[in-house]
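It is worth pausing here to work through a concrete case rather than discussing structure prediction in the abstract. The textbook approach is simple: state the sequence, then state the predicted structure, then interpret. We follow exactly that order.
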Amino acid sequence: MAEYDPRMRYAEKEFMEEDVNRPKHYTFSKIEVIDAIEEWGLNFRLANVVKYVVRSPHKNNRLKDLLKARFYLEREIHLIEKEVGISD
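Step two, the predicted structure:
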């Protein structure tokens, strides 16, 4: 068994924090998607539409992310249709 090296824990923690807080599909541009969403004041559903569309080319399964975006967009449209009396 390998000998314990306390520096390894720090390196693993640093790697995990980077992977959780700033993965490559978050930081491909000068502007992070979350910053744009907050600046624009988007609601949860529209924020997810933007997030999934913008990040999709930078992830492994582009179609999956675009389908997620469509799900949130269709939900937003349905709620607006209910508000204006077009849908039940």
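Step three, interpretation. The chain has one domain: 6-83. The chain has a mean pLDDT of 82.
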